[in-house]
Prior knowledge:
The protein is α+β, with helices and mostly antiparallel strands and 279 residues long. 43% of the residues lie in helices and 18% in strands. The chain has eight helices and ten strands.
Amino acid sequence: MSENGPAFVIIAIVAAVSILTVFVLPIFAQWFANMKMELPLLRQPRWRCQWDRLKLRLPIVGSITLEPGLLVVMAVLAGLLSATRACALELESDRIDLSPHVEFLEDPGGKLSVDQLASPEWSSRFKPWSHSGGQGTPNFGYTESAYWLRVALARAPPASKDWLLVLSYSSLGKVDFYAPGQAPVHTGADRPVGSQPHFDVNYVFPVELDAAGQYYYLRVRSSSPLTIDLTAWQPNAYQIDKLNFWASQFLYYGGLLALLLYNLLLFLSLRDRRFLHYS
């Protein structure tokens, strides 16, 4: 057993990596392709630096890589003045908690429409969550009522117009999202997965913000606790956050898979049922 142990470990690791590479990585590649993003390994500063060093040390490839790089540096220096002015503008935030800005309205009968809410009669009935005694994330507990939530959003001139509104509580039964100039989105745990704009564990709604403030509405109804954890994300920042999350899941379940294969190989070699139970 002591002589075969290292060999079994190597075989188990190779098998686990092969399975993850063949079946898991293509899913990530398709995900990033749908988001029109590159696989971000070489985009990380640490890996990008090491990769560039390796390219520059190669006899022929190094010179081919260096000359375009110098042209890029010259272009950056030529635009330094305009870049400096852009950096002097208001800085953008990657993630903004919208809980302090949320207003809500209870709809016990569930019959109100988004057009009715724009009228002065109903618009004046919205209450700010932060001013109604609520603390932290809006939570209405178990209720049969539908709740309407609205938040006024605008972008500062230097900020990107493309944002993501992310509703993190995935157990909500019915979620309806209304954005100015966009088709309404009807999704939720009680509706098909294909109703989500983005295939994600959260409800992700892409929006295009205007410099002028506009209201964005959510209608939520559910048999589970009504928790509204709403945040605004820059698209790239959200993808990096999700990548970090899935990378941790990849390592965790990859380690479990390696242990399972290792104990299974030991069982096949030694015919000891204890290793089968471990696996």
